Amino acid sequence: MINKPLVLTYLYLLIYILLSSGVILYNKWVLSQKYFNFPFPITLTMIHMGFSGVVAFFLVRVFKVVTPVKMTFEIYATCVVPISAFFASSLWFGNTAYLHISVAFIQMLKALMPVATFLMAVLCGTDKARLDVFANMLLVSVGVVISSYGEINFNVVGTLYQVTGIFAEALRLVLTQVLLQKKGLSLNPITSLYYIAPCSFVFLFVPWFLLEKPVMEVSQIQFNFWIFFSNALCALALNFSIFLVIGRTGAVTIRVAGVLKDWILIALSTVIFPESTITGLNIIGYAIALCGVVMYNYIKVKDVKASQLPPESIPDRISKDWKLEKKSSDIYVPNNNDNNGGNISALELNLDEEAPLIASSRLSHIGRTQLSK
């Protein structure tokens, strides 16, 4: 007999993988001078933020699908503004990297995301320096260095843009956890876009006015409404697909899907963009980095599961490990006592750097019990 919830879960995972890969490849195609030739990454990001903000406004204020949270000026200034600033920065730098380096190499560099997140968390005091995690981070870093050494079309500017975007995103994740939890604020997907997207748009306006507006005035650019509309729509759909995936799967399943998506994206990018050449050293380096990422994911998933156990069950944790491993990949079904999608923090789970807004807002609220530790 067909298990309909299981089929639906895998369907959501497939949609997430397709949309995630599609948005990245679409952005590369739009920005690349060899294809659509719209080399204005800040403008493209502003289109995404503006479109998401408008959709969220209609859903909140016109159709009243959700009720906005009680947002005071203090909370907006101290929480939403800094989070939006780093969110805008991460998207700006990440999209700019497409102008200089290949999609495949960008995905390999994104293996540094756990390293950046761990370092930022330690610096901000939300995580402790641990030898086992540090060893994994060292392995990831070595793998990325080897992969970079094997990159035929290595570009320093593009690499710096991508790495800077990764660290900006890592700092945003840490700030999301610290600031939103401190205020006891939990945003759903629509209210996340409603508050953060317009603020990110404003932050992007400054570099756009200084860097891209003068160039756009003198250059012959093509603007196709349907291209940009469909691109923004795909980005918005990706955010909601991430929300659906989080609501129906466990941490292990999501992480495996993310790794699978990366490999599919690397393979697809070499087919769609023939100039993207992958060398044997690229693959070896990325495989080494991926081993470190997988080990890191395993450690963090076990930490999350251990923190969710009631105090009386902790002595029996070792004997029940095999049961917990099974449960971690089971279908997640929300109940009345758990309407936040589980206690997985934004620092424990990085889904997608292309559309991380909804995912991190949903994952940022891990509960006051963990804050008191």
Detailed description of the structure:
The structure is a single chain. The protein is 71% helix and 0% strand. It has 373 residues and is an all-alpha fold. It is globular, with a radius of gyration of 20 Å.
Short overview:
By secondary structure, the protein is mainly alpha-helical. 71% of the residues lie in helices and 0% in strands.
User: What's the alpha carbon Rg, rounded to whole Å?
Assistant: 20 Å
> Which segments are poorly predicted (pLDDT under 50) over 5 or more consecutive residues?
312-349, 358-373
Class computed from helices, strands and strand pairing: mainly alpha
Number of strands: 0
Question: Please, what is the average pLDDT?
Answer: 81
- Terminus-to-terminus distance: 45 Å
List the total number of helices.
14
Strand count, sense and barrel status of the largest sheet are:
none
Shape: globular
- Helix percentage: over 70%
What is the beta-strand fraction?
under 5%
What is the H/E string?
A: HHHHHHHHHHHHHH
